[in-house]
Design a protein that fits this description.
With about 150 residues, this protein is an alpha+beta fold. It is about 35% helix and about 35% strand. A hairpin with a 6-residue loop joins strand 5 and strand 6 (about 130-140).
């Protein structure tokens, strides 16, 4: 349930064009990794969804797409985490926030592409090293937009 809440929260936050498409495709092809892509068109339908206590109308129109990669076994989780951290470091993403809950760890990274376009990446690892999730989000979003959804 906790993993689902993290996925839902990150899905709602923003979207990522991750030039990165090649990078995401590569990581999505790791044996044991599940890959989900949500298009800009689908995101535009979000305001029509009834999501309790969340103001999605404003930000869903600013999002470009969402990529979600999840590994549920130790080997795939290790490869996904290693590839993601390498990519983030190489492309100079800035760590915005880290949340530790027991052994679980979630980190949010950001890269400002230009004045009006940002890319966010959420990494979430369970404490048993058997699960890892990457959510890449980008669009014409600001931190204020993200804060305004509640």
């Amino acid at each position: 349930m906790k993993r689902f809440q993290i996925l839902l929260f990150a899905f709602i936050l923003s979207a990522s064009a991750f030039a990165q498409k090649e990078f995401i495709d590569k990581l999505g092809n790791i044996d044991g990794v599940t890959s989900v892509y949500v298009s800009k068109t689908m995101l535009k339908l979000l305001p029509q969804l009834d999501v309790k206590e969340l103001n999605l109308k404003k930000i869903s129109q600013k999002m470009d797409g969402v990529e979600i990669l999840t590994a549920e076994n130790q080997n795939a989780a290790k490869k996904l985490k290693s590839g993601a951290l390498s990519y983030l470091q190489k492309n100079k993403y800035e760590q915005l926030m880290e949340v530790k809950d027991g052994k679980d760890n979630t980190i949010i990274y950001m890269k400002q592409k230009n004045k009006d376009y940002s890319s966010f990446v959420l990494l979430s690892a369970d404490g048993n090293h058997t699960g890892f999730t990457l959510i890449a989000l980008s669009g014409s979003l600001t931190l204020e937009d993200i804060q305004s959804i509640r």
